[in-house]
Known about the structure:
Helix content: 25-40%
Strand content: 15-25%
Number of strands: 23
Number of helices: 21
Largest sheet: 8 strands, mixed
Structural class: alpha/beta
Amino acid sequence: MDVSVIHLLAIMFSGLSVWVNAETVLGGAKIISLGKTYNAKVPDNTFQNQFLDTHSQPVANLKQHGDKYTFDLTIDRRYAFKPPIRKAPFSSVGEPWPLPKHYRSERGAALNLKKSTFKISVLNKSCDILTEAIKRYKAIIENHIIEEQYDFTYNFNEKIFNDHKKLEETKYSHVTKMADLEIYVAEEDCGYPHIDMKESYKLIVRPHITRLTAGQVWGALRGLETFSQLLFRKRDTEEVYSRVTEIEDEPRFPHRGILIDTARHFIYKNTIRDVLDGMAYNKMNVLHWHIVDDNSFPYKSEVFPKLSEKGAYHSTLVYTINDIKEIVEYARYRGIRVIPEFDTPGHTFSWLGYPEIKSTCYVGNVPIQGPMGPINPAQNETYSFLAKLFSEIYNVFPDNFVHLGGDELHSTCWATNPQIVAFLQTNGGIPAYEARSNAANYINKAIGYYFKRLISTLKTTASEKQQRKSFIMWEDVLKNTGDVPADSILQVWLGRQQNVRALNQRGYRALYSSCWYLDSYKKHVLWPEYYKCDPSPYITEQEEKGKVLGGEACVWTEYITTDTLMSFMWPRASAPAERLWSPKTTTDIVSAQRRLQEQRCRMIYRGLPTGHISGPDYCLRPSGKEDGPLVGSLQETRDTVRGAVKSAAEPSLIADDTLERKQLSLVVLSHYHNYMPLINIMLTLIGVYLILIASKLWKKKFRKNNVCPKLVSLK
């Protein structure tokens, strides 16, 4: 046998092995033979069809690479075919965020909302908050309902495209007209939102009845938001639909917050309003306003005007009392509390306007020029000043809670100040020598004294105004004093959930923020980390009730400006929003990734500057309809893409049904992919066996032609 024949055999069988592996076909509807692929009439196999329908759909899978996450496109899970393409998850259609506590939706039944005639009416108690909410949501229904998302990756195969199209059309197979929305609120509570407000609601969207019921107006607000999220537009139309749905919902935690920092970079009012709208769309209810810090003092006090005159970046970059009242009222209409933070005794460098309350730092016996240090705890004037300032703050911010800060005190300055050292000796019970030579070891006593007296002073101030005020502080405070009032709330930012348990064991309620610092920027998907983080160390919701009040997502603005704040915050903050609202058992990240993709596009379509979340994707804007013919010609574009994909997917190898089928064929079974390694091994072994036989034949021929002549010559 010639060498070329051996090579031909090896190539033929190796090629056959690769051919079977590469050309195993979708749907079990083809037969593979040596050289050609024919369409075959395989008997229907229910299991096979179900298997292929499940595993031949393109999907964006969440992948973890060390401490990084990405979403990667998988075209066909049967082959684990994963092109090097980043792809955001496929969007859900008409699904709510955050996920309700009890949620049932009928996939095959749709209701059509006629925008021209649809009405929202209140059956029982109403007030300005509900009246304004109805106006807002009517505008959203009229102009800002997103359409079901189109995804070109379904075009990679004609069968997949058709199957996906049929699946989409099933939503419209049984359509009835949606009834007008009726709202029933049981109690009147239309003042300012508060920590004990009731946000539960029930929503029924069925043929002939669309009803929202709530105990208080705050629940009606949350229910209206959910109702708006159930709505979607049929692609390339203005027709609005919803699935038949029933929801019974309430929040897991009463405190679901966002911290904004307006001191490192000034944040304009319109951006703060955008933040509040985003919070309402995600059912968050506390704006923690870190309004001043070392870097600037933008709060324009009327009782101490020099605070902003000397401490603000610019005379125009301030918040007047009227500005703040406007923001507080804007938040009220959305069921959002506004809690200010005036951080002391540290983080007060910008309080330059009143140096008499600041401490002077020393090098040896030489004072450093200017009031560089923290608030001075060793003089009565300090507490008189703060009482007057907070009396004004109480009038501007109506919430029952004020955040006093208390974190990151750099106490070295205090340890060098002779007045504070003497104070430690007198009030701290420290021997004179120790106070002078080792003051740094006892500074915690000064911190403890400061907060004990500050809280007492501010409680008295509130009482004189016939107001009830309680305080939130960073967890640092409790390290230095045990005299924090029992009704205070401690916010955990340094440690994990066990810090929450430790605070609870000392009798304090806690908030959690450690895992939700959103201002860190990394070039990979971050939200799964936020989504997986739970603020509670307890196993059940019953155990945590009354101990863990919730948590806050924090956006510090050292490297974020008013122009970039929203795109950093949203939709990242949507992940902690669902964690704080939905039940503890809501942990399905596959469901979350699809709904979060829809929520991102929903916020963009409502006009909010919203950043990326999971990788490459697209979201429409209402203005997109005015940008040119793209939207109107989208169907033509799809038809063109489909034609190109179809041509590329059907090469001339594929023979027509009319051709003869005389060759031996291999029927593809529903579990064919399980047999592929075995088939490859068998074909390889056969190829090796034939090569060995051919080699033996060749050697025999070689001996016959070359050895015998030598023997003859010897004779």
